[in-house]
Amino acid sequence: MKSLTGSGTDQAPADPAATDDMLATQPVGYWCGLAHAAVTRHLRDAMARVDVTQPQYWVLNRVNRGPTAPSREEVVTPLTPLADGPHEIARVVDQLLYRGWLRIDAEQRLHLTDAGEAARVQLRELVTELRAVVHKGISDEQYVAALKVLRTMVANVDGDGEF
């Protein structure tokens, strides 16, 4: 069968047992999905053991991010596409307010409390440890190369082919 893209590589069915010489024919969506599921499960399982969710960690980081305290909307809007549903991040903000890890000031801006900052630092250490497990046997150069390939693939299908 002739390749429509001119790359000369035909698409093969997803095969978790594909050998190295067969990997160029494997569907990227399958492997990205598998990696996403495995890494997300690994992170969320570890966070569950300390009674935190990944979206809670996202919110703590977003509140801590800039020089000025964000509004609820400035936290919820950019994180919603990453969440499991359109209302999850707003609920997480409420959970963290209830837990005492966030507070709202008179201008309706969100701030980390001392307990929230301590939790964020503890979670950052945990995530750094988890990253080391995920990246075992992968050099920074290999990791960067993989992300560049994925970024280009996204641009190829979503944009003008450039980032």
Structure summarized in a few sentences:
With 163 residues, the chain is mainly α. The chain has helices spanning 28-48, 54-64, 72-79, 88-99, 114-134, 140-158, and strands at residues 102-104, 110-112. The two termini are 32 Å apart.
Task: Summarize the structure in words.
The chain has 163 residues and is mainly alpha-helical. It has six helices and two strands; from the N terminus they run H-H-H-H-E-E-H-H. The protein has helices spanning 28-48, 54-64, 72-79, 88-99, 114-134, 140-158; strands at 102-104, 110-112. Strands 1-2 form a two-stranded antiparallel sheet. Helix 1 (28-48) packs across helix 5 (114-134) and helix 2 (54-64) crosses helix 5. The relative contact order is 0.09.
Helix vs. strand class: mainly alpha
Strand-residue fraction? under 5%
Q: How large, in whole angstroms, is the Cα Rg? A: 20 Å
* Poorly predicted ranges: none
What's the oligomerization state?
single chain
What gap, in angstroms, lies between the N and C termini? Answer: 32 Å
Overall form: elongated
| Helix and strand element order | HHHHEEHH
How many helices in DSSP terms? 6
Instruction: Please give the share of residues in helix.
Output: 55-70%
Rounded mean pLDDT is 91
State the major sheet: 2 strands, antiparallel
Number of strands: 2
Strand order of the largest sheet: 1-2
